[in-house]
Amino acid sequence: MVLLNLRRLLAVILCITLLASTLALPVAEAYSVNDEIEIGKKIGKALENEYKLVEDAAVQERVERLGRTLAAYSDRPDLPYTFKVLNVNEVNALALPGGPVYVFKGLVDFMNDDELAGVIGHEIGHIVKRHSIKQMEKNMGMTLLMLVLLGDRGLPLQSVLQQALMARNSREAEEEADHHGYALTLKAGFNPYSMLMGMQRLAEVSGGSDFGMFASHPEPEVRIKRLKGYIQKSKIHPQVVTDATSVRLIDGEWTFDAFAALSGERKTELYAYQLAGALYRVSQKAEIRPDWFVLDRDGDNVRIYYDDIMILTVTAQQAAIAGTTAAELAGSFIPKLQEWAAQQSRLQHKTEEPPKEAVK
Question: pLDDT tens, 202-212?
Answer without folding.
Answer: 887 765 444 34
